[in-house]
C-alpha cells in the first residue's frame, strides 16, 4: 500500500516548522499552503511530474481524463506541466482558444487536487525565429524588452495576457489555482533567444525582476510561485547563481538535466547528483523550495532507468527536492516520449518507481492547498 501524504503532513508538522521565504506577501491562501506543503513533503518524499501529461500522449490527443502515466499506474502524475507558449505571438483568436484549453487543463488538475507547473517557450517578441535562437533571423531581445527598451511596452502587453490567464483560474471551490511559473528556463545555454550567449547577465536579471514585479505588484497575480531553473552547465554554487536575480525574486530553484542521465547513451550520475545537491543545498540555505525541473531519457530504451538511474540518484543523498518532472510524450512521433505507456519496455520498472514510498503521484496527494 502506498504511503499517503496526509499522514506525512501530520508527522512533519509535529516535527516543527521549516524556514520559508515566499516572495509574494499577498499570495492567496492556497498558494501559501502549496509552498509550505511542498517544503514539508520534500523532507521525506518527491512528487513525480510529466510535461503535457493530460493534453496528449503516445499516439493520442485530447482524451478525457487520460494520461500515459495513469494508463500504466492508475494515477496521474502529481505535477503536470503546461506551457504558456500560446499566450503570445499568435492571432487573437488563436490565443483565446489556447487560453481556454489551458484553463480547462489547469482547473481539472486543481479540482482533482494535483499541481500544475508552467514553462514558457516564449516566441521572440522582437523578431522571427520562435523561441529558439536562429542565426540571421533572431535578435537579442532581452535588452529590448527590459525597462527602457524599444519593446518594453509590447512585453507589458504580453504579461497582461499572462496575468489575465492567471486570474481566470477559479476552481470548483471558487479559489484561484496556484501555478509554479518557470520563465526563461535553460538560460545558461544558447539554444533559446534568452540564452547566455544572447543577453548580458544584467539584462537577464533586469527582465526577471521586472516580470515578477509587474505580474505581482501591478497586475495583481497572487497565485504564482516563481521558479529559477538553468540547464546543467554549472559545477559550483557560484556558477549556478551567476544569473540569479536574488532571493527576493525567486520562490523555487531547480535544474533541467538530460545530459547526465542517459542522453545519447551517456551517463554521468555522479555529476548529476553533484548538481542536484548544489540546487538542494542552496534552497535549504536560502529557505527556498528546490526541484528537478526537467529530466528524462527519450524513448526510455533502458528498462531499469526509473529505479537504477533516476530513483537511485534522487535517494543517494539527503536532498529536499519537491518534484522531478520528465518531458512530454509526443502524440505523433513514435520515438519522442519520456514517460512509459502500457507495454513500453520500462513500464514494469516504472511500476516499481511508482510503488516506492519515496515517490508521490496525484492519487497520494491530500489537502496540498490547505
From TrEMBL:
Keywords, ordered alphabetically: Carbohydrate metabolism, Glycosidase, Hydrolase, Secreted, Signal
Specify the GH26 domain's residue ranges.
29-363
Q: Where is the signal peptide?
A: 1-21
Enumerate the subcellular locations listed in this protein's record, separating them with semicolons: Secreted
Q: Where is the active site?
A: 186, 294
Keyword Chloroplast on entry: no
Pfam families to which the protein is assigned, alphabetical? Glyco_hydro_26 (PF02156)
- Tell me which PROSITE patterns the record gives: GH26
Question: Which top EC class applies here?
Answer: hydrolase
Please give the catalytic activity noted in the UniProt record. Answer: Random hydrolysis of (1->4)-beta-D-mannosidic linkages in mannans, galactomannans and glucomannans
* Enzyme Commission numbers on file: 3.2.1.78
Q: Does the keyword Cell inner membrane apply?
A: no
- Protein name (record): Mannan endo-1,4-beta-mannosidase
Per the UniProt record, the lineage of the source organism begins with: Bacteria, Pseudomonadati, Bacteroidota, Cytophagia, Cytophagales
Amino acid at each position: 500500500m502506498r504511503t499517503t501524504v496526509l499522514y506525512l503532513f501530520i508527522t512533519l508538522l509535529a516535527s516543527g516548522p521549516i524556514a520559508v521565504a515566499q516572495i509574494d506577501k499577498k499570495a492567496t491562501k492556497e498558494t501559501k499552503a502549496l509552498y509550505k506543503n511542498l517544503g514539508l513533503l520534500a523532507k521525506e518524499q518527491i512528487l513525480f511530474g510529466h510535461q503535457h501529461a493530460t493534453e496528449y500522449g503516445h499516439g493520442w490527443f485530447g482524451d478525457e481524463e487520460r494520461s500515459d502515466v495513469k494508463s500504466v499506474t492508475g494515477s496521474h502524475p502529481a505535477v503536470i506541466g503546461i506551457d504558456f507558449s500560446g499566450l503570445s505571438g499568435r492571432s487573437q483568436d488563436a490565443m483565446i482558444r489556447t487560453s481556454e484549453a489551458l484553463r480547462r487543463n489547469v482547473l481539472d488538475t486543481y479540482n482533482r487536487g494535483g499541481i500544475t507547473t508552467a514553462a514558457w517557450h516564449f516566441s521572440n517578441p522582437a523578431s522571427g525565429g520562435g523561441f529558439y535562437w536562429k542565426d540571421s533571423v533572431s535578435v537579442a531581445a532581452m535588452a529590448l524588452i527590459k525597462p527602457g527598451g524599444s519593446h518594453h511596452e509590447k512585453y507589458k502587453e504580453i504579461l497582461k495576457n499572462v496575468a489575465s490567464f492567471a486570474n481566470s483560474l477559479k476552481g470548483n471551490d471558487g479559489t484561484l489555482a496556484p501555478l509554479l511559473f518557470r520563465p526563461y528556463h535553460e538560460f545558461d545555454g544558447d539554444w533559446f533567444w534568452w540564452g547566455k550567449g544572447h543577453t548580458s547577465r544584467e539584462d537577464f536579471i533586469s527582465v526577471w525582476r521586472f516580470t515578477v514585479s509587474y505580474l505581482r505588484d501591478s497586475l495583481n497575480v497572487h497565485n504564482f510561485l516563481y521558479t529559477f531553473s538553468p540547464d546543467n552547465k554549472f559545477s559550483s554554487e557560484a556558477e549556478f547563481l551567476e544569473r540569479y536575480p536574488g532571493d527576493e525574486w525567486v520562490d523555487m530553484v531547480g535544474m533541467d538535466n538530460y545530459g547526465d542521465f542517459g542522453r545519447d547513451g551517456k551517463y554521468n550520475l555522479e555529476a548529476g547528483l553533484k548538481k542536484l545537491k548544489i540546487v538542494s543545498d542552496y534552497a535549504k540555505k536560502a529557505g527556498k523550495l528546490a526541484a528537478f525541473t526537467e529530466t528524462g531519457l527519450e524513448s526510455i530504451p533502458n528498462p531499469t532507468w526509473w529505479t537504477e538511474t533516476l530513483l537511485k540518484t534522487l535517494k543517494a543523498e539527503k536532498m529536499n527536492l519537491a518534484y522531478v518532472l520528465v518531458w512530454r510524450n509526443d502524440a505523433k512521433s513514435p520515438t519522442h516520449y519520456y514517460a512509459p505507456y502500457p507495454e513500453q519496455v520500462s513500464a514494469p520498472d516504472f511500476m516499481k518507481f511508482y510503488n516506492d514510498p519515496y515517490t508521490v503521484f496525484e492519487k497520494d496527494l491530500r489537502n496540498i492547498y490547505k
